[in-house]
Predict the structure of DegT/DnrJ/EryC1/StrS family aminotransferase.
Amino acid sequence: MNSPLALLGGEPVIRQPGQHFSWPPITEQSKKAVVEQLGENISIYDRSGVVAELEDALANYFGVKHAVSMSSGTAALHAAYAACLIEPGDEVIVPAYTFFATATPLLHLGAIPVLADCDETGNISVTEVASKITPNTVAIVATHMWGIPANLPALRALANEHHLILLEDGSHAHGASLDGQKVGSFGQAAAFSMNGPKPLSAGEGGFVLTSDDDTYFRLLLFAHYNKRCRSEIPSSHTLHRFAVTGMGLKFRIHPLAAAFALDQLTHLDEYLAGRAQVAALLCNELKEVAGISVPQLPSKHQAAWYGLPLTYVPDELGGITVERFHKALLAEGLSEVDRPDSTCPLNQLPLFQCPAALFTHQREFARLRYQPGGFPVAELVHHNTLKLPVWHREEDVPLARAYVRGIQKVVEHHHDLKG
Ligand SMILES: Cc1ncc(COP(=O)(O)O)c(C=O)c1O
């Protein structure tokens, strides 16, 4: 620790080259699952084979009646919104701080994403949501940022009070829970991404959870036309006559991705337990470090630790900017410390500042003009977030500890960063 900062010519804390974190774990068993699927079927039109196995396993894992696999999280969100009958002009309250795909499918449905600021946890603020409800509001969406559960009981109470639909974007939070109830099971539907680095990965893929039969049939109609709709929507149901075409979109998961995800799912709890241990270690070691604030969860909440969002507090380090602090960490060899980029307050993105320029047929969008500065908490949280990877294996603990040492070193020498 006595060495000068690496940014100023000293020895870096970590010299280990290459990537320090990779996800998902690809085992011999995962490879075998994919190769076996290649020999079995690489195009599945109905709910059979590995698609049925994956959906049964997901429904069972999350404690819901139905899981519908999709080609991506974006597709899952799109299908979930359509299946909940969100229509042109409807207002849907979404987090200002989330990945943009939480909100973009609403634009495609002609609905109005009403952004609500977050609280200091980075998750949507219940007070802000309450203040955005109007007679045109139909739904509230929560994202569990970086795997930390949003305040679903309070959001559900608010939704019930105002007769609104509660929806979840669980893309960061597979397996996270509140008082033993898994996120994804709190509202009418929940959409998840299974894209590359997600806690449950298919490489590319997604799924929607619901316990409501009609929502399930509409998910199929929206995204899984023909054979699947014909065999699953009862002939007595009013929607059955549309089964051949559905709504004309095909958002099926690839069977190879389904096989990979199914294998990953069998290890999810073990991976999450490993991550929980490493997250606890990191938080414990960093909680007294000046300039760094660690997430604090209520005791009965379990996070999925998609990442560990640390909040940088410049006032505790003589006003050194987060940009300079981050640069110093990278120079110490902490190459995985990330300042999230595309996951940002949506009002900072041109699409949300001027959606009418791209959605030229949507007259209603002329009034959507989000601007920088509109969501001060989200903007501050985002600006000061330094995200660490959360490893899951015992053998990665020394690396996690080296990251702690690197942060401690930069904090101890922060005076040298002035000027
Ligand atoms: C919160 C959130 N929602 C939705 C998505 C979109 O998922 P996909 O990339 O699978 O379409 C992502 C992906 O990063 C995400 O982080």
About this structure: The pocket of pyridoxal-5'-phosphate is lined by residues 72-74, 98-99, 101-102, 143, 169, 171-172, 193, 195, 206 (CB under 6 Å). The chain has two domains: 28-264, 268-417.
